[in-house]
Description:
Blueprint: H1 2-11, H2 14-28, E1 33-34, E2 39-40, H3 46-49, E3 59-60, H4 62-68, E4 74-78, H5 88-91, E5 99-100, H6 103-106, E6 109-111, E7 114-117, H7 121-130, E8 138-142, H8 148-160, E9 165-168, H9 172-177, E10 205-206, H10 208-212, E11 220-223, H11 227-231, E12 248-249, H12 265-274, E13 283-286, H13 292-303, E14 309-312, H14 315-319
Parallel strand pairs: 3-9, 4-5, 4-8, 8-9, 10-14, 11-12, 11-13, 13-14
Antiparallel strand pairs: 1-2, 6-7
Helix pairs in contact: 8-13
Amino acid sequence: MKTINNFIKSLIPAGLMIVVLAIMACSTSDSTINTSDSTIKTSDDLDIAAKGYTNSDRIVSVSWLNKHMNDKNLKIIDVRSLTEGLPEKYNGGHIAGAINIPAGSTFQQEINGIKGMLPSAAHIENILSENGIKPTDTIIFYDDNKSLWASRALWGMDVYGHKDSKLLDGDIKLWIAKGYAVSLETPLITKSSYKFSGTPNTNLIADLETVQGSIEGKAEVLDTRSPDEYSGKNLRGNARGGHIPGSVLIEWKQNVSEDGSFLPAKDLKDLYVSANIDSGDEVYTLCQTAVRATHSWFVLSELLGYPDVSVYDGSAIEWANREDTALEVR
Length: 330
């Protein structure tokens, strides 16, 4: 590099030297933004790298976000719910620059009498447009419950093809516990015209008929609910209780540590292999309305790299309220 610099100095007038050296510095540095596709890279996130995930680019640590929150094309989305129509949680303190887009009303909707289903692309596009989100943005989702609702948002964006979305490891509680500042200011929003591109990835969604096939041994069903829901003690308002015959119970909370962050890859792998959920299996995740199910989908699909995992979007609220579906109670 020293020889190259001396050669350049001999050819370029001194007045242009600063410009040339600045360009060279940019070209040789490990920039966080890939200018070819504007995707924000996270190779410098050592906290996440230490966990050994298969796809560490789908998740960022609170320390990384604190350093990169002003990166170009990065949007932070707070998916916490409204209280009587008002963003009270968000207004009480949020990560600076974050926009409140509640996951419950954006990524769930009653369809054909089944609550909690994934809405149409147009429904989500309208909300993203109102909040100034662009297809080229890198989105960081966070909530206040161990990334539970944030995972639903990320899954929904993956289904319809947003290029780059990630979860904040932990949630705003961990952010605050680490001593990072919260803001009471609402950022100015310039509306956009958001459109998903391409065809929805329906491989990420399992329907009732597909899950029924698992009873004949064609796949594994992962039940992510509580033990009482699985056993049939807690009906959650459903007509019947219990679980799909042959399904495996691993409650979604087992994916995370006490501070709300995801367990390291080795611990997660041990958890699922101990329940005979192997990477070569076709896996359908479910819960009550496919929120906890998306949390476990994220773990298997993104953090552990299982190649064939989908979410049963109808989940128990569809299955347990029909008369033609099998349930076991124990």
